[in-house]
Amino acid sequence: MPQPDIEWSEKTGSTNDDLVAAVESGSAAPFSIIGTDHQQAGRGRLARTWTTPPNTCLTFSIAVPVPSTVAADDLGWIPLITGRAVVDTLRAEGVPAELKWPNDVLIRDRKLVGILTRIVIGADGEKTVVIGTGINVHLAQDDLPVETATSLLVEGFEFSREALLAAVVSRLREALDSAFSRPAVGTAEFCADMSASMATIGRDVRVELPGQEPLTARAVGLDKHGGLVIETAEGLQTVTAGDVIHARLL
User: Fold this and answer.
1) Of 51, 79, 216, 217, which alpha carbon lies 20 to 30 A from 12's?
2) What's the CA gap between 93 and 200, in Å, rounded?
3) How many independent structural domains does the chain possess?
4) CB 106 within 8 A of CB 53
């Protein structure tokens, strides 16, 4: 597997914005990475922003070319596949990480990792997914942005950001290749395997949907496109966008 091009800076506004611009201009090769020691205007879902002290987080974005064989509906799996790659990397080192639908990694129900994906059309007309990932590595307790966050340091784990980057990217590329190069993504076996690493499945949750009243439900599984299947008093329904809050945190 060829090594990716890596551009690293002391500080930037958003690695996601930087890489999106590079893809759109045609200057980013497939699997290029832009990272920074200090992200000053990080982007999150629902237009959220955040900042962290310098040299405390592993903050990077990677440009993943979308094969022509991948259906648009299956792109919803990419945040989950990315999160699973992070979870598997951390679990291999003894960290009890779990995946939260749709794009977070938790330890003890506290947020450790955030993931943001954006679909970009490059200068060549081809589709690329820019995946932004932020991992709280060296954040001290007093530096955590909210009480529901955590870091590897707070949880008692010491990691090199450089080694963690290499391990996560390697596992992510293998996971994406495995999921999309054969009839795997969306199969019952694939959905069950993804569900097994998720803290959300089997939990009572509150689902906050754009422009709608929140729903109280139980998360029961994933559909073939990565949507969260919930059970409400009215029956089963699938959520494809929105915030999911685990009941213990309500």
Assistant:
1) 79
2) 22
3) 2
4) no
